[in-house]
């Protein structure tokens, strides 16, 4: 997984400039922030509250024929994700009722294997953290529709009402007997906001019978036309600029049937099971292996094994979706990070982006900037019949459509970018061994941008303890000192404006108009480090002016008057 080049020119520039927004002093990977699920849901709802038509939110998709499902799996089917899935359902106060739809909630018919029923329980969860949740109702999948929507309509319940007139519910889906050989697949929808809460979960495009084949291949038995092309889209909500993002992919069976593509031992994934892994069949990360031997020119080898089981790409063309499975994470500004070698058979692999420059064993990509907003996770080449898993330390937002309620399905669109916030992230230790939080928790919204002079005089308002400019890390006190006595030194003037710009972004200000300038400024300081006698003024002066305009609130996306208050 490590070592794949970025899929955009911009990211290639990032990797060359060795720049940081945040930097840590520890040599080990950092802890990952957990999302405040209430703020994630409520702010998403508020962002869409002005719509003139109500919308359903779906997970994973709205289509009833595309074969894309979330999955719960019982014994003997090598589940990587456990026997429970939790959804957060946010309902705006203006809604007249809560509507929930379950597609194919019944287990023994189409899209499923086995007969063990699913259990669906709905809770009022006004704190959005599970504590104090009150059960409102339960339904058995045995009474739900096979290959169709089962609809539930409930009056709004004040037990779910949050302090800001948003209603928050929690839908918990379980397999009622995990000892049976069952593979159940379903979708959900709601008339509010649906978010899959952070935990490992499985997903698949199943194909068990001819009846399902006729749906996936409309001209069956011809396979030239299909409703499933091997691609998936997931939307990850990131509340604030953050120092690292982790995505764990499980049992993706990377490695083609002919052995041309093979799983490798991922450099930045520990060769052990993750602490959160509850699967009894998961193996320590390494080079994937299986009991299946590769097939070349129609001949099965007796010595070389596939790294997937079944291999992705599959030998059977009914199931195969080329190319071999892989995915790309795209940030809200369009920077793409590609993982072209995900997990092999029965292993979890970590895909990690970090703004902390340490070593290749700690991340897949070094990023100058990981902004807040909605990240898009595009999975490609996922074969039919392959049960895969994700573990993301953030809520995954349901896709929404533009359909007026009760009028049928429509094309699916991604959610809009919204302003969320993280809890602290610890990236190092002080001289006494105590953890240093790089992101200081805050629920205050930004009052606008501040000048370098304001930040120099208000060190207690910094949301970082360490900041890096031009590839060099500075403690807070060192950065404060650096911002003084610049005189006519262009290198120092750019450095102090860059420090201020990064602090302004981390304080919650809009970064749309300054994102590229920050990257360019870091690159310029690497080429023209502090102390350079003849810096490049042709490229440096425009960068300096752009940073200055942003920090003083004069840029299109900046606010305030340079004093934050």
Structure, described:
- The protein has 8 helices and 28 strands.
- Helix 6 packs antiparallel against helix 7, helix 6 packs parallel to helix 8 and helix 7 packs across helix 8.
- Strand 27 and strand 28 form a beta hairpin.
- The strands form 5 sheets. Strands 1, 2, 4, 7, 9, 11, 13, 18, 19, 21, 23 and 24 form a 12-stranded mixed β-sheet that branches. A 10-stranded antiparallel β-sheet has the order 6-5-8-3-10-22-12-20-16-17. The protein has a two-stranded antiparallel ribbon with strand order 14-15.
- The longest helix has 17 residues.
- By secondary structure, the chain is of the alpha+beta class.
- Sheet with most strands: 12 strands, mixed
Poorly predicted tracts of residues: 1-38, 45-53, 401-445
Broad structural category: alpha+beta
Fraction of residues in helix:
10-25%
Shape: globular
Entry keywords:
single chain, 565 residues, alpha+beta, twelve-stranded mixed beta sheet, ten-stranded antiparallel beta sheet, 28 strands, globular, disordered N terminus
SSE layout and pairing:
Blueprint: H1 9-17, H2 37-47, E1 57-59, E2 69-73, E3 84-91, E4 97-103, E5 118-124, E6 134-140, E7 149-155, E8 167-175, E9 183-190, E10 193-196, E11 201-204, H3 210-216, E12 232-238, E13 244-250, E14 293-296, E15 299-305, E16 326-330, E17 336-339, E18 348-354, E19 365-366, E20 373-380, E21 388-392, E22 396-397, E23 399-401, E24 412-413, E25 425-429, E26 435-439, H4 452-457, E27 466-469, E28 472-475, H5 476-482, H6 490-506, H7 515-527, H8 537-551
Parallel strand pairs: 18-19
Antiparallel strand pairs: 1-9, 1-23, 2-9, 2-11, 3-8, 3-10, 4-7, 4-9, 5-6, 5-8, 10-22, 11-21, 12-20, 12-22, 13-18, 13-21, 14-15, 16-17, 16-20, 23-24, 25-26, 27-28
Helix pairs in contact: 6-7, 6-8, 7-8
């Amino acid at each position: 997984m490590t070592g794949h080049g970025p899929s955009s020119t911009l990211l290639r520039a990032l990797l060359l400039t060795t720049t940081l927004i945040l930097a840590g002093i520890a040599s080990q990977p950092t802890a990952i922030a957990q999302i405040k699920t209430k703020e994630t849901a409520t702010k998403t709802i508020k962002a869409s509250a002005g719509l003139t038509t109500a919308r359903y939110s779906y997970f994973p998709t709205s289509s009833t024929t595309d074969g894309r499902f979330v999955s719960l799996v019982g014994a003997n089917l090598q589940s990587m994700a456990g026997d429970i899935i939790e959804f957060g359902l946010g309902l705006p106060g203006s809604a007249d009722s809560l509507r929930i739809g379950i597609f194919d909630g019944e287990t023994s018919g189409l899209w499923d294997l086995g007969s063990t029923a699913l259990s669906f329980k709905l809770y009022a969860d006004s704190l959005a953290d599970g504590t104090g949740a009150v059960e409102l109702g339960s339904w058995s999948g045995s009474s739900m529709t096979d290959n169709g929507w089962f609809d539930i309509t409930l009056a709004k319940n004040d037990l779910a009402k949050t302090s800001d007139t948003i209603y928050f519910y929690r839908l918990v889906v379980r397999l009622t007997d995990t000892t049976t050989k069952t593979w159940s697949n379903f979708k959900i929808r709601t008339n509010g906001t649906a978010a899959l809460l952070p935990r490992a979960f499985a997903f698949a495009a199943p194909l068990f019978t001819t009846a399902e084949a006729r749906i996936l291949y409309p001209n069956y038995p011809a396979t030239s036309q299909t409703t499933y092309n091997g691609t998936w889209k997931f939307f990850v909500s990131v509340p604030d600029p953050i120092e690292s993002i982790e995505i764990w992919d499980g049992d993706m069976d990377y490695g083609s049937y002919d052995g041309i593509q093979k799983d490798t031992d991922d450099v930045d994934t520990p060769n052990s099971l993750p602490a959160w892994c509850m699967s009894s069949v998961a193996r320590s990360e390494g080079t994937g292996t299986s009991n299946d031997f590769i097939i070349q020119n129609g001949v099965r080898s007796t010595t070389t094994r596939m790294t997937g089981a079944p291999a992705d790409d599959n030998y059977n063309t009914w199931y195969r979706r080329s190319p071999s499975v892989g995915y790309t994470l795209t940030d809200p500004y369009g920077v793409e990070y590609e993982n072209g070698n995900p997990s092999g058979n029965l292993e979890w692999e970590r895909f990690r982006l970090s703004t902390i420059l340490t070593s290749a064993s700690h991340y897949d990509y070094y990023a100058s900037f990981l902004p807040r907003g909605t990240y898009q996770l595009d999975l490609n080449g996922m074969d039919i019949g392959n049960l895969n898993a994700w573990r993301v330390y953030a809520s995954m937002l349901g896709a929404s459509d533009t359909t007026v309620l009760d009028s049928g399905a429509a094309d699916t669109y991604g959610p809009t970018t919204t302003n969320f916030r993280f809890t602290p992230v610890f990236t190092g230790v002080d001289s006494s061994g105590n953890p240093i939080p790089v992101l200081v928790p805050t629920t205050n919204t930004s009052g606008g941008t501040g000048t370098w002079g304001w930040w120099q005089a208000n060190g207690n308002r910094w949301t970082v303890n360490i900041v890096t400019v031009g590839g060099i890390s500075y403690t807070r006190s060192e950065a404060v000192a650096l911002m003084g006595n610049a005189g006519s030194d262009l290198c120092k003037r750019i450095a102090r404006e860059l420090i201020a710009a990064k602090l302004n972004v981390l304080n919650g200000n809009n970064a749309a108009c300054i994102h590229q300038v920050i990257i360019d400024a870091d690159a310029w300081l690497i080429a023209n480090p502090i102390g350079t006698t003849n810096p490049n003024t042709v490229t440096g002066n425009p960068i300096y002016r752009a940073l200055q305009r942003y920090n003083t609130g004069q840029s299109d996306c900046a606010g305030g008057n340079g004093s934050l208050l």
